[in-house]
Write a sequence for this structure.
């Protein structure tokens, strides 16, 4: 006997649990099948939250390391980081957030079925989900099944993840001691965030990136600024470098790489973090039997997150919209979940504008960006003008001792339309919200100039960069 629901969501990550809550708010009877012991998925358990908790510890350590400058007396003993306390605090934060999702499920009368699900009965038959591990049962969807099974770390040829010395972010967040040396393969957001964490904790950090710059999806000026800062902090950056092999031996890893200048290099590090991206999770779902269109492993959806099988939607890290570069971000999966839920509940929905997705990287210095980079704007044929303003000039930056970085505005000369805002420096991950709203409202640069920015704030750099795009910043 099947248990009937309006909507059944498979996976309780930031995509799935938000879709479930929104659907329940709109009057749907909802079940979520999640195989982990806690709700929240990658973001809450292994991703956004634990990494940012570790980064906050790194920031606390930074302040203490500069105690003299701040007039703080902490005695003569060298400052040390207690990893047990770090891990305990991180686990408490994760626990309180995952329990928070459980509370929201109860509040919205959503049933959490603890187990692993596969699709059955699509292709014209009734829509069913078979929970084949855990709380075994068959669930029937009156309206829709939403696949939100997320992603998992993947490696590159020549590098086999053993989860002991050659690790993914899942293991890196749980390290019980500060490694003496820490190497990172792949310098996107995940790679550079761990570089910042372990460098501040005291590790020797070496980065390898195949592309010619760190954080390759960011504006080139941002990448250059991060590399400059990392070199100053003593992080070794090998860009344009290909790691050809990595072998764990004893308590370390031997890493061979071909560097940009054609030479080869071998280093030995306590750990190698493989941060070369994440692939979709569809194993065990039986997507093939259900007749789902799969592209390079991802579930293919349209702009309203419908798959090719009527009554089956998919959202979040597991999907492709048919073009490369669907952003694997928590807030993107959540917004897709909201749109899918509203559509299932019969509301009219509009497609998401993926050009307006804010991207935050919490390395030190932080990066916040939204919209087109200068290069992308030129490639799309805009007559581009840019404005830049360094944080270091601002009173607030001097007060907080965080003077690195800048705000860069990319705009279209013809209509003065704002196309992108890119920033690197303290609080950039918060400041990007203003730029995101401005892009959403199709603002001009002139409107940013006329927006009053409070003083003293780091946000003044956004107004000043807008002035710069029109010719001259006030405080330069
Ligand atoms: C180290 C790290 C740091 C990150 N930092 C950020 C950040 O700062 N900001 C940001 O926006 N994004 C960040 N991300 C990315 C973000 O975590 C993901 O984009 C987001 O979690 C995707 O959500 P999702 O719901 O699509 O999938 P997931 O969160 O991966 O959730 C999928 C869920 O489905 C479950 N599941 C899978 N298959 C089945 C099945 N057959 N049956 C039952 N359950 C199943 C899984 O157990 C999992 O809980 C980070 C990722 C990592 C790894």
């Amino acid at each position: 006997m099947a248990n009937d629901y309006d909507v059944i969501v498979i996976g309780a990550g930031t995509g799935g649990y938000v879709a479930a809550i929104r659907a329940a708010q709109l009057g749907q009877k909802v079940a979520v099948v999640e195989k982990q012991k806690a709700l929240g998925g990658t973001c809450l358990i292994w991703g956004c939250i634990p990494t940012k908790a570790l980064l906050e510890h790194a920031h606390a350590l930074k302040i203490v390391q500069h105690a003299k400058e701040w007039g703080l007396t902490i005695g003569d003993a060298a400052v040390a980081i207690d990893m047990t306390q770090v891990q305990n605090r991180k686990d408490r934060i994760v626990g309180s957030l995952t329990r928070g999702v459980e509370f929201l499920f109860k509040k919205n009368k959503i049933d959490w079925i603890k187990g692993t699900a596969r699709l059955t009965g699509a292709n014209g038959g009734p829509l069913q989900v078979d929970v084949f591990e855990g709380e075994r049962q068959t669930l029937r969807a009156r309206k829709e099944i939403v696949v939100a099974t997320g992603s998992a770390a993947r490696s590159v040829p020549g590098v086999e993840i053993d989860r002991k010395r050659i690790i993914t972010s899942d293991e890196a967040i749980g390290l019980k001691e500060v490694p003496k040396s820490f190497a990172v393969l792949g310098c996107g957001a995940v790679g550079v965030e761990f570089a910042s964490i372990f460098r501040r904790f005291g590790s020797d950090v070496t980065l390898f990136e195949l592309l010619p710059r760190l954080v390759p999806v960011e504006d080139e000026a941002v990448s250059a600024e991060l590399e400059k800062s990392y070199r100053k902090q003593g992080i070794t950056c090998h860009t344009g470098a290909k790691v050809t092999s990595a072998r764990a031996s004893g308590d370390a890893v031997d890493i061979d790489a071909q560097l940009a200048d054609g030479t080869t290099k071998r280093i030995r590090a306590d750990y190698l973090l493989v941060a070369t991206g994440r692939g979709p999770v569809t194993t065990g779902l039986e997507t093939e039997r259900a007749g789902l269109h799969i592209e390079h492993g991802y579930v293919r959806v349209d702009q309203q997150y419908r798959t090719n099988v009527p009554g089956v939607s998919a959202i979040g890290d597991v999907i492709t919209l048919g073009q490369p570069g669907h952003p694997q971000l928590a807030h993107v999966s959540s917004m897709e979940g909201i749109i899918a839920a509203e559509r299932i509940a019969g509301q009219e929905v509009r497609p998401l504008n993926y050009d307006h997705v804010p991207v935050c990287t919490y390395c030190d210095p932080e990066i916040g960006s939204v919209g087109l980079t200068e290069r992308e704007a030129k490639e799309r044929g805009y007559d581009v003008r840019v404005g830049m303003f360094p944080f270091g000039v601002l009173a607030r930056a001097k007060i907080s001792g965080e003077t690195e970085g800048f705000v860069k505005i990319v705009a279209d000369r013809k209509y003065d339309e704002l196309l992108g805002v890119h920033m690197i420096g303290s609080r950039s991950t918060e400041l990007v919200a203003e730029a995101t709203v401005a892009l959403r409202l199709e603002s001009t640069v002139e409107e940013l100039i006329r927006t009053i920015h409070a003083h003293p704030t780091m946000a003044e750099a956004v107004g000043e960069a807008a002035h710069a795009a029109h010719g001259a910043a006030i405080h330069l």
In short: The chain is about 35% helix and 25% strand.
